[in-house]
């Protein structure tokens, strides 16, 4: 209730430590600009500060993934001599890691005189998020005293990096050593099972949950639905879902499962059931719904959902939604409408849009439009291999092998490497 808190705060004759509370509160609910503004006002007043005075602004750094701001806060903490505080220093390491700046995170970590398990786990998580599982594993093995969170960080890293077998092997070792898993551990392991479509392992984990009397939260239930769906057991996924009438995450997961199985009409029916029982739709609901329409035919219904999502459901379209519409229209070969939608966008198209356009150009062999999308995507991110590979694929489908070779040469000149190489 941040607005109510702000009104009360504004009336306070003396605010002292309440400044810290307000900065943290705004950062935690995602009001980063307001958090930073309050922090600046507080520092200008020169009424004294301590280590906790930086907690809110560091939270804003991590959540907003603002590298420049993180560097500025790091400098301020260094100048006032608070880097010796383990929690504060670990939080700055985490902020650098969430900005994807692992070299900066590692330098600060290496400079810490004292490190607790939180500091170690923070860096393991950072490497895992960046897909550098070699560094993550090396660091994990070096942790003097591991806890369940550090084990889970590595399991999750393997799972998210597509190394499902490694994730499940580590989970088995974790169980053997009697390390207590948590909800996130189970969710990551179920995602690993889904990644390799291993129904056997997924059932074993589900059985463990049941036999241990473990009460799964929404994320674990969602992972169970996703696992059974991707392993081809859609009916079991439905039983796990069992029409939970209040949780939008589970509804979205079940909608996605139907879409993955090409059951677009059923996904649309389920969406209307969702509306009927009073579950509030969110941004992801419409991404899933538009994808369902895109992959199983009902173009007009997809357009209708897109046009009414704001007026009827109070969800404002973003780049992902526009990318879904471009995919929907493009798969139907309606390229003039695709271009019209791009022109109508209230913001500059990003990589979501050009990736979607490239994909449908490849399906229909639309070389000219595909080339334009590839050039714009390359302009946005010259080192991303996606645009080069998709353009090369378009040329390959049309038998234009000289152009395929030119794209490869361009990749070599710019030192662009395929993912995983």
Automatic annotation (TrEMBL):
A Gene Ontology molecular function term of the record: RNA binding
Keywords: Repeat
Short name of one Pfam family: E_motif
Repeat among keywords: yes
Gene Ontology process terms (BP): RNA modification
Segments traversing the membrane: none
Lineage top rank: taxon: Eukaryota
InterPro entries: E_motif, PPR_At4g14850-like_plant, PPR_rpt, TPR-like_helical_dom_sf
Residue spans of the PPR repeats: 15-49, 85-119, 147-181, 247-281
Coiled coil regions, renumbered to chain: none
Gene3D superfamilies: Tetratricopeptide repeat domain
NCBIfam families reported in the protein's UniProt record: PPR
Protein name (database record): Pentatricopeptide repeat-containing protein
Species of origin: Anisodus tanguticus
Lineage of the organism: Eukaryota, Viridiplantae, Streptophyta, Embryophyta, Tracheophyta
């Amino acid at each position: 209730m941040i607005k109510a808190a702000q009104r009360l705060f504004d009336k306070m004759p003396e605010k002292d430590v309440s400044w810290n509370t307000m900065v943290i509160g705004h950062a935690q609910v995602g009001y980063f600009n307001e958090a930073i503004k309050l922090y600046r006002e507080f520092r200008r007043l020169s009424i004294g500060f301590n280590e906790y005075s930086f907690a809110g602004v560091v939270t804003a750094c991590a959540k907003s993934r603002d590298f420049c701001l993180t560097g500025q806060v790091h400098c301020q903490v260094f100048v006032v001599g608070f880097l010796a505080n383990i929690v504060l220093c670990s939080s700055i390491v985490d902020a650098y890691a969430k900005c994807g700046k692992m070299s900066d995170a590692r330098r600060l970590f290496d400079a810490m005189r004292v490190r607790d398990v939180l500091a170690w786990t923070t860096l393991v998580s950072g490497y895992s998020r960046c897909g550098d599982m070699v560094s993550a594993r090396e660091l994990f093995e070096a942790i003097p005293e591991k806890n369940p969170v550090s084990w889970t960080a590595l399991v999750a890293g393997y799972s998210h990096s597509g190394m499902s077998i490694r994730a499940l092997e580590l989970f088995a070792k974790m169980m053997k050593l009697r390390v207590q898993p948590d909800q996130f551990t189970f969710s990551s392991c179920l995602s690993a099972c889904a990644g390799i479509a291993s129904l056997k392992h997924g059932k074993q984990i589900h059985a463990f949950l049941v036999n241990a009397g473990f009460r799964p939260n929404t994320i674990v239930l969602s992972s169970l639905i996703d696992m059974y769906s991707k392993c081809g057991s859609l009916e079991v996924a439905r039983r796990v879902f069992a029409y939970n009438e209040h949780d939008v995450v589970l509804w979205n997961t079940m909608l996605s499962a139907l879409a993955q199985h090409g059951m677009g009409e059923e996904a649309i029916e389920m969406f209307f059931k969702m509306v009927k029982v009073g579950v509030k739709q969110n941004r992801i609901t419409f991404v899933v719904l538009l994808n369902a329409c895109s992959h199983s035919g009902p173009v007009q219904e997809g357009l209708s959902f897109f046009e009414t999502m704001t007026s009827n459901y109070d969800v404002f379209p973003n780049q992902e939604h526009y990318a879904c519409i471009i995919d929907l229209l493009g798969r139907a070969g309606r390229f003039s409408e695709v271009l019209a939608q791009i022109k109508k966008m209230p913001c500059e198209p990003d990589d979501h849009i050009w990736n979607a356009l490239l994909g449908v150009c490849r399906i229909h062999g639309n070389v000219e439009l595909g080339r334009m999308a590839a050039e714009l995507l390359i302009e946005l991110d010259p080192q991303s291999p996606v645009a080069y590979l998709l353009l090369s694929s378009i040329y390959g489908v049309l038998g234009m092998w000289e152009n395929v070779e030119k794209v490869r040469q361009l990749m070599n000149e710019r030192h662009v490497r395929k993912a995983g190489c």
